Model the fold of this input.
Amino acid sequence: MEHPMSSTPARAEGATPSARKVLTFTVQDTRYAIAAAEVREIVGMQNITLVPGTRHYVRGVINLRGQVVPVVDVRLRFGVEPRDYDERTCVIVVRVRGTDIGLAIDSVDDVLDIPESAIEPPPSLTGGAAAPYVIGVAEARESVVILLSADMLLYESADLAGYAG
Amino acid sequence: MNGFEPEEFREVLDEFLFESREMLREVESTLMELEQARLGGRTPERESVDAVFRAFHSVKGTSGFLGFDHMVAVTHRAESLLDLVRKNEAELSESLVTAVCDALDFASDALSVIERSQSDEATAARAALVSEQLEAALDEARRAPVSPKRAGASATAPAPAAFAAIAPAAPAPEAPATEEISVTMLNPIIRSAPPAPEVAVAHPAAALAPLVADSLPDDADDDAPEEAPQGAPRRQTAKAERPAEESRQAVRVDVDKLDALMNIVGELILAETMVTHNDALHALDADLEGFHKASLHLSRVTRTVQDIAMTMRMSPIRGTFRKMLRVVRDLSQKLGKSVDLQLSGEDTEVDRNLVEAIADPLVHILRNCMDHGIETPAERVAAGKDATGCVVLSARHQGGEVWITIQDDGRGLHRDRILDRARKQGLVDGTGDAMPDAAVWELLFAPGFSTAVTVTDVSGRGVGMDVVRRNIAAVNGTVQLSSRPGQGMTVTLRIPLTLAIIDGMLIQVGPTFYALPLPAIRESYAGRSAVRTAMPGGGDFVQLRDEFLPLVRLADLHGLPSASADEDSILIVLDTGTRPVALVVDRIIGQRQTVVKALPAYIGTLPGVSGCSILSNGDISLILDPRTLLETARWAA
Done:
């Protein structure tokens, strides 16, 4: 599993020498991708119980066949204006650090193989760093896909302290 | 080696470890009883001395059989020492008890070393040291003259009335007071096939030390380890000595199985609610009387199953309490204070998880109590008190909770000193002089708070009451302090009996369901019947009868859209542990058995929320924790 080049645990996961299998989805008209290996299942949005007072981007919890699963609203995480959930809203359940967590996103697109060679590091804006959860960008099927680290998306970098990946 | 197949050896070893631990635990509490008798000027109970002697004897026997020489060396000397006491050749002096305590500690630790199959070099060194101490105690005991009182008393088979209450429980090494295994083992049904027939070989000590201690053969002490019988591995400890009344059958059950049972009972109750409260029933036109009868029956049966499953996990708090006797004894010596620890309510049964959860907090509290609370004998006498301090540790059931109180007759909490310290640590604004006592005591729970003038190695490292509160909060309990200057203080731990299933009241606010623990609900009112008053600077209150209650709007607290105007809302008067509040909700749905699930670790702990529960329609309700609800209220304000 050790990937010599990887500095974050997320990069090592799901990485193959030639291509990465990813699940793409849309939030606010932008396409994103996370490693398919981290995805447990995709469910439609269901009754969510709001849980206040936790991380600001945690919306609440859902009942996934008797299991109580927290749901992170990716819009809130990105700092994008939240919107009401509709019939296209999906929850991608990922397993990160041994825990199942749901990602509420606008809609799910596709599963793709993105060649490693097509992945560019996140372009930096006037020297500023991109959000820590952005691994890179790639072009796939004539549109731009932003590759995300599910781990960094769900945990603040401060949470990483003491976490030996 | 020992002539066993490896697998067989493991089994014999496990049996040895289990039984020895159980015996040592009993020894500890019996020893503390003896110590108390000694301090109280009473004659040590002969039977208790015998019980301790026998326990060391049998541990020695099997240790020798299995080839644990260090254990033999130490237990043999402890046994010899006790034999002198038994034969009235030595007094049960303080140093003697200390030496036996050391032997006991060594034996417990050595068992752990044996269990982990560790190298025993360190054990060897310690065995030598402990043995030396025991030898010293032996020498001392042999030299010391025996008081005529002691010799005379034992000649007439003593049975002081003071011991009548504890005697039946104490001598039997298998009294069901173990907190590690909630069911005593009499009948190893669920264990793997025993290598020896079930008919147990009599306990070696049982043959040598019958119940009537006076008829003991005098040479019983000198037997070497090789005397341990062949059948030792499967023996049933001291079975022959068991009082006739102890005829209840019991099995040893893996704790994991009990946990699994409790979990599945939770699921069962959930499934039952899903059936009996199913929404589809409302749509049915049919006559449902038969169904309701049947579901009532189902509910009763599931409730019974739940009760049984819960009681299976219960064990008396005695074991934990007895351990405290030892803690207090050791501390008394260390601090040069004389303290009498009195126990009450030892038979109070609590969930085994709680037994584990309260042990550390109790030690902490007792330490604080003895270090800061109880004065030195000189100070006590000067204050007109008995030179010996008194600490009462008691447990009782109160509603759905177990209350454990630790009450001392020491100097009580020092309000000024606490405030002084709090000001230095920036915990209070201004002088704090106007703060009510309860609020001042609350400062003691601040992390890192310590009032000890000098830092001792007993307490006063600044970790203390905050840790106690955190540990108790982990089992949904609360800690409260009260104090009377010069007369002592009381610490009260209130812990719910079980964590798995609560009687809940289901309520609704906007789209969200909540469960409130039923015991915390005092009453509820229609919102329009209450007179509201808005406070300048925020914070409303209502007047209900002759009480003013702060108004807590759950919708505001949790950022929910509320469906009803204040007039249409419902006020629930909640006990929060400190003061009652009026909780504003939209709707009361009804009483439900609520299976508590923890919130996912990712979410962490939330003030005001103790967990969640899955409702019959599949939705999730949050379970409110009235005791921490106010923390959110403050935090939201």
About this structure: The interface with chain A takes residues 267, 511-513, 557-560, 597, 599-604, 606-609, 612, 614, 618-622, 632, 635 of chain B (CB under 8 Å). Confidence is low (pLDDT under 50) at residues 148-246, 458-462 of chain B. The longest helix of chain B spans residues 6-39. DSSP finds 18 helices and 18 strands in chain B.
